[in-house]
């Protein structure tokens, strides 16, 4: 019998996360109620209180499961904490009902791609993993971690992308293989400072033991070493050493020319994914790392680029179009521009600025990158990055101007480096708008 069998559960917030928990409670026969400030989802045979703005009847419940969209200072969470009710994140709840091992990835950038790569690598090794978690708009099947935990067999690993929001209320969340792709600046509207954001990300490692594996960049300095075995990736990586033309993973050389993608950040994602997949197999005592690498690599070679993340859209008159709408902060903008291997980049940049852009200014000269700024913070970004660059109201207007200036062999890339919600509902909406623009201009 699961530990929630005799519990009464309040789900705070709907969405994909809250609805997944409701489905799990209903399936497991656990008493629960979902509270939502919007109209609330229609969930057959499950009580939902929509448009709920007042205090919660916490005397009727034993614990709360929170939608990660609710910030830590939300009145419901403050009320629950004051009443002494345990507060669980959706991944924490999922982990407690899961039967199979969890491989989890977080980071400021690259976590969706790394999770998808690790998923493909495990498939290549003959496993039947489930890709799940915070993945959104990727083109892969999308399923919340809770539904994956509910449905997966004990022999099916759960490969989960985990956001910092989801790590705010974890206590016993225990991935057997846990990866941090990188730590930059993001979500400072939610956290007190950069240190608080990074500390939340590092909670992914908190419950690991010496029988688990943590995969980290070789440049990442931790306040204290995790209890798990650490494999790092990078030029000085202990698990994956990245050279000029090849990476060496667990002592085996993999030339970059064998991989179906290019760019420094994609190579780093691939190295992290191979370490995570081999780490999960080692942690579950399935096989030693080097022995599993051929199968993992075979699976990695089947990886397809995920949508809105350096996604090739085709060409217009010899100009390559790339959709990187998921580029939502300053560090992602730097990585995007550094990864493009063409003679000249025409970069569409704008939206709601996030992070410190000042260090980027000297990195990209007018001879290699032309900027086309747009959106709410376009003028501020232009002042920081390229005062002589043109400024437009919309992304589409910026794209039209860039296409007029581009030559065959150049790239035209949507790499906003900003949040999307000045003009779009989400980064997915923004990416689809760019795709529609490209189709309207005859991309092939």
Structural class comes to: alpha/beta
Distance from first to last alpha carbon: 56 Å
In spatial order, strands of the major sheet run 7-8-6-9-10-11-12-13-14
Low-confidence segments, given as residue ranges, are: none
The average pLDDT is 93
Global outline = globular
| Main sheet record | 9 strands, mixed
Query: How many DSSP H or I helices?
Result: 12
What is the CA-based Rg, rounded? 22 Å
Strand fraction equals 15-25%
Overall strand count: 22
Helix percent band: 25-40%
Any overview of this molecule?
The structure is a single chain. Helix content is 30%, strand content 20%. It contains twelve helices and 22 strands. The chain has helices spanning 15-28, 75-83, 90-97, 111-124, 145-151, 194-201, 264-283, 289-300, 330-339, 378-385, 395-405, 427-440; strands at 8-12, 31-35, 48-49, 63-66, 87-89, 102-106, 130-133, 158-161, 177-180, 213-217, 229-234, 240-242, 246-249, 252-255, 311-316, 319-323, 345-350, 352-353, 369-374, 391-392, 411-414, 418-419. The strands form four sheets. A nine-stranded mixed beta sheet has the order 7-8-6-9-10-11-12-13-14, sandwiched between helices.
List the helices and strands and how they pair.
Layout: E1 8-12, H1 15-28, E2 31-35, E3 48-49, E4 63-66, H2 75-83, E5 87-89, H3 90-97, E6 102-106, H4 111-124, E7 130-133, H5 145-151, E8 158-161, E9 177-180, H6 194-201, E10 213-217, E11 229-234, E12 240-242, E13 246-249, E14 252-255, H7 264-283, H8 289-300, E15 311-316, E16 319-323, H9 330-339, E17 345-350, E18 352-353, E19 369-374, H10 378-385, E20 391-392, H11 395-405, E21 411-414, E22 418-419, H12 427-440
Parallel strand pairs: 1-2, 1-4, 2-3, 4-5, 6-8, 6-9, 7-8, 9-10, 10-11, 11-12, 16-21, 17-19, 17-21, 19-20
Antiparallel strand pairs: 12-13, 13-14, 15-16, 18-22
Helix pairs in contact: 1-5, 3-5, 4-7, 4-8, 7-8
